[in-house]
Every structure is written in structure tokens, then in C-alpha cells.
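Reminder to self: C-alpha cells first, then the designed residues, so the page reads top to bottom the way the pipeline ran.
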């Protein structure tokens, strides 16, 4: 896959704004501030195509990025941030769940989790919901550069156990060092080919 031809297409706030489902789609989900934007930027080899913010809740729509004529990357709003009004949280949740359930061409949801934190209920619920709906899911543990090797392995095992994930079914990732980028590209290539 050639990630050099990536362009921002649009930000979707209502289902009727979705582009035609003519290409495969990969969605990126995660709690606020887990490194979603940094992961996508590292994946596509760009510094700032996806805006990185220190303010949680910055992404407020489904942000579509077109990769050549091959597929779409879709950056979903972060979840679990209390300072976003409840009405907005509910609207996002409705938009996201309807989108994920009904979108033709949805190949995979990359569920991004910060390796430094214990398993969070919202991540577990999302993974279980995706499994129930038979929507392929790829867990990625980010910010691995922030921990030593032993801490990294210990925390990864805790997340695996907490979310019932097999070691071979997830990826360890660092936007800073590039760890996990080749594995992520290989996994996404496989999901798109299915």
C-alpha cells in the first residue's frame, strides 16, 4: 500500500454526509488522548496531516482521509472525555455506532489504547461490541516508548488479559520510534484484501 498519496477528504457530522461507499474503509477508534492522530500520522509517514491536539475531544466528526484510489482511513472522535457535553457525547456515540454497523466496505476498526494505563471499561465494551457485530478489530497499544522493556511487556499482558486479547492479535506501537508501523501496515493490507 502506498501511503504517500493521502489527502484529507471531509469531516462527517451526520450520516447523510458520508461519501459514497466505493472504497474499503479502515476506522481508528480510541479514548481521548491515546495517540490516535500521532499513530495515523506515523502510519502515513506525515508529520501533521492529522491534527494532533493536547486538548481532548478535539476530533468531533468522522474525519475521512483518502489513500490514493485504494481506500479510506477514518479518524473517529475520541471517547471517554468528561468535559465534552453529554449531548455531544451521545450524538457522537449514535453517529459512530450507526456508521460502524451499517457501513459497506468497513474492513477493520483499529482500537487504540495507551499501554501505560490499565484496561478501561469503555475499550472492553467497544471490543466486545465489535466482536458481537462481527466487525473486524485490531487492538494497538500505543506510547510504548514511554516504558522500559519489562514494564512494556507487563502492561501489554495486563491489557491482553483485561480485554481478552491474544498477543498475536494486537500490535505494540510508538509514534516516536516507529515501532509497530511495519506490522500495522501488513495487518491493514491483509484486512483490505479480505
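Designed residues (194 positions):
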Amino acid at each position: 500500500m502506498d501511503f504517500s498519496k493521502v489527502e484529507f477528504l471531509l469531516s462527517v457530522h451526520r450520516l447523510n454526509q458520508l461519501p459514497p461507499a466505493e472504497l474499503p474503509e479502515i476506522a481508528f477508534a480510541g479514548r481521548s488522548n491515546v495517540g490516535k492522530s500521532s499513530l495515523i500520522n506515523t502510519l502515513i509517514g506525515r508529520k501533521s496531516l492529522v491534527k494532533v491536539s493536547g486538548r481532548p475531544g478535539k476530533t468531533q466528526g468522522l474525519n475521512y482521509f483518502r489513500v490514493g484510489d485504494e481506500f479510506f482511513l477514518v479518524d473517529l472522535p475520541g471517547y471517554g472525555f468528561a468535559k465534552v457535553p453529554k449531548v455531544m457525547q451521545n450524538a457522537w456515540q449514535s453517529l459512530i455506532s450507526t456508521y460502524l454497523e451499517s457501513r459497506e466496505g468497513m474492513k477493520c476498526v483499529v482500537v487504540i489504547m495507551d499501554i501505560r494505563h490499565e484496561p478501561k471499561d469503555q475499550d472492553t465494551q467497544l471490543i466486545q461490541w465489535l466482536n458481537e457485530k462481527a466487525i473486524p478489530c485490531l487492538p494497538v497499544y500505543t506510547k510504548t516508548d514511554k516504558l522500559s522493556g519489562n514494564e512494556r511487556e507487563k502492561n501489554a499482558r495486563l491489557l491482553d488479559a483485561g480485554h481478552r486479547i491474544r498477543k498475536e492479535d494486537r500490535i505494540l506501537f510508538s509514534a516516536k520510534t516507529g515501532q509497530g508501523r511495519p506490522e500495522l501496515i501488513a495487518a491493514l493490507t491483509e484486512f483490505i484484501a479480505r
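DSSP finds five helices and seven strands in the chain.
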